[in-house]
Fold:
Amino acid sequence: MFFTITELEHHPILFDVLYQPGEISFPDDLHQIGALSAQGRTELLRNTLGEIRIRGHVKALMEGVCDRCLEPARLEIDSDFDLFYRPAVRTVNHAEIQLEEGEIDLAFYEGEGVELAEALREHILLSLPMQLFCRPDCKGLCPYCGANRNAGDCGCRNPFIDPRWASLRDLG
Structure:
């Protein structure tokens, strides 16, 4: 769904959409499981130079790789969003543009408007935790043999000691 400035000048747009897996492009290590649903409202903010506000609610089930054991890890996204888009500023000399404190939460668009799928993609990626776990008590991989500790005890008892550091053990 594409929101054009021309249409938003006349009236706000309400949306209630479903995106099937594959319709929104996510990084290779992140997959959408089932339909992604989003409901909300898009409007052109008055007394601005084309600033668009998209707000609503999104629900999706995402699957990635557990950061501890490398098994599949699922995460449910069920959150409200309130996004602001401003037309991109074109500079002739490619100089850096300084943003004021209130502008940090803004995104920019080029052309005639904003694509909802891209706005939802951005919101979902920013909603992901820094580390994704298959479960809160994930034991991860054994640092010596590489076995998944969630599947059972691997039997590694004596940690490998690099002989270059062995003399430091005698200092204590």
